[in-house]
Amino acid sequence: MEQTHEHIQQLLDGELDPMIESALYGKLSVDSDLRTEMRQQLALRLAVQEDRALLVPPAALTNSVFTNLGFAAPLAGAAAGAAGGGMLAQWLARFGVPVAGMLAAAGLTFGVFQATTPQSQAPSQTSSQTATHTPTTVASQADHSQQGVPTPARSVKNSSEAVPGSEAKPVVVYKTNPAMEQRVAELERENAALRSQLAANAQSQNINVTQDESPLDQEVDRVPRIATVSLHQTHGVERMADNSPYAVKALTLMQSPFAPGYTVQFRGLPLNPTIQTNAIQQSSWYDNLAVSMQYNMNANHSLLMEFANESYPMVFEGWRNGQQIRYEQFPTMFWAGLGYRYTMDQLGNSGVAPYGQLNVGGSKYGPIGRLSGGIQYSPAGAISFLFGIEASGLAYTFQDQWFLSPKIGITYGMAVRF
Amino acid sequence: MRTLSEYTDVELFGLFTTDQGEAAFGELYARYSSVVYAYCMRVMGDREQAHDVFQDTFMKFYQAASRHEQLENVKGYLLTISRNLCFNEKKRNNNRTLEFDELLYNPGESRDADQNEMLQLVRVSLELLPQDMREAFVLREYQGLSYTEIAKVIGMTVPTAKVRVFRARQKLKEILQPYLDEQTRG
């Protein structure tokens, strides 16, 4: 009997000798016990096959294997990486999505900005101004004229020969915010007083001093300057015409953190996921940290490029061997993106300004969007701090189905302007 | 240019020591992780131990690239590593008592269908098999290895492998007989 059972197994394995096979069929046709034995062997094999189909390593275990080997977590990204061959394919698998996200975000941000910002008026300059103006000063003029702030531009014409050692330079005043305006008014009062003193001195020395309100783009001839002031930059106004009797006292102005320039910002992203997972979070010391390069186009509008390493929980379902399987993983991923920040005018003289920011970028798993709002505090100098709330979401696909991993929480950071 | 999915196992293993090592490992992992996992789970019986052995298997597999320039049978090599690790783990935990599947013996748990119950029974029955029979059975039924391949992995003759698989099947059938009788009657 045992031999017949063995033959049944060999038949089911497809390894039974054809000579024995026909004999076995003969026995099966007349023996119901043998037929039962065969059915049970088949049932056992089917059960084993079904059990086998369910045995798939959990995503957390897979992540653990790869993490222990120092590799990036697999799945969507790794699948692409595994399927790709060659350096380019691997590079694209890892950085292609972030780069594409950045480019898309750049185009979007540029388009929005172009559509919402009026064209700047090109500054006109005379040759003499060109020789003495810095680019910043020119930008200030354009911005100033755009805002229509009636800041008087002054030049002092000296009918006599210029004092040796002095050079012609117009007074440029740039309005940035109420505090600055106040400071401008103070300066103007000081300058008015100095001007009176100057006129008195000149009169006593028989020098004819006149004052006009000619615009900045007019040529200024051989004038000992009173003061050249650019309020959005830190610099002491150099003592002009030191050897002249018209010397003006030096001024030092506070730097504005909101004016054109570049800023490097570091911030933490301790956001909380809104979906639950039992997967173990991959972690390293630089997780959930972002660094950005920010270009402040003016006091209110900034463009920024941001990079970060951040964890997102990924919980999704898919099919494998006919079974629906739930996957959970908590990988850390590198992402890059572009953003736009709108900073409101600072609240009084507090140095605090509310801001709102929108980021669009990409990671190897999929696109990432972020929206944040908060306050930026700029006490003095080049350093400022920010604190706000932020919502972000990672979108990713698995088996042609989209999934979203949202997060929300606080963000904080420090920025250095240069 | 070929993608890595078109490479053979041997070629992929050869890439381990190159800058494509990570991607090559990922591809081989995708090919054989479920094979190794099934083996660990069904041979070890205990989920935690099986996971430990599974992880160690792939760690050792990747590290093996520094010792072997090439492998002829990657799947067999993986199963051999896994088998040795399972053996060591079993030896270490020799005195542990068998843990019954709580789901099977907990009447409060739902059982969706008879087939699910059958699967549970198969799993528990496997644990009741002697280790040598269970191993041969898993390699044959879960991994689909030929008797020659089983003989190679376990280190025995082909006829011995056949006998072990046959006996394992018979033993399992004996354990499950009441259930199978009921099922075949229905």
Q: What characteristics describe this protein?
A:
heterodimer, A: 418 residues, alpha+beta, Porin, two-stranded antiparallel ribbon, 34% helix, B: 186 residues, mainly alpha, Arc Repressor Mutant, subunit A, 2 domains, 0% strand
What do you see in this structure?
The complex is a heterodimer of chains A (418) and B (186). Chain A is α+β, with helices and mostly antiparallel strands and 418 residues long. Chain A folds into 3 domains: 2-43, no CATH class; 94-116 and 258-417, Beta Barrel (Porin), CATH 2.40.160; 118-256, no CATH class. Chain A has 9 helices and 13 strands. Chain A has helices at residues 2-13, 18-30, 32-54, 59-68, 76-83, 86-116, 127-132, 135-147, 178-204, and strands at residues 155-158, 209-212, 261-268, 272-273, 289-296, 301-311, 314-320, 323-329, 332-343, 352-363, 367-380, 383-398, 401-417. In chain A, strands 3-5-6-9-10-11-12-13 form an 8-stranded antiparallel barrel. Chain A has a two-stranded antiparallel sheet with strand order 1-2. In chain A, a hairpin with a 3-residue loop joins β10 (352-363) and β11 (367-380). In chain A, α2 (18-30) packs across α3 and α5 packs across α6. Chain B has 186 residues and is an all-alpha fold. Chain B has 2 domains: 1-93, RNA polymerase sigma factor, region 2, helix turn helix motif (Rna Polymerase Sigma Factor, Chain: A), CATH 1.10.1740; 104-186, Arc Repressor Mutant, subunit A. Chain B is 71% helix and 0% strand. Chain B contains 10 helices and no strands. Chain B has helices at residues 9-14, 21-44, 47-63, 74-92, 102-105, 114-128, 131-142, 147-154, 158-175, 177-185. The longest helix of chain B has 24 residues, at 21-44. Chain B is elongated, with a radius of gyration of 19 Å. In chain B, 38% of the residues are buried. Residues 95-113 of chain B have low confidence and may be disordered. Classes of the chains: A alpha+beta (418), B mainly alpha (186). At the A-B interface, α1, α3, α4, α5 and α6 of A face α2, α3, α6, α9 and α10 of B.
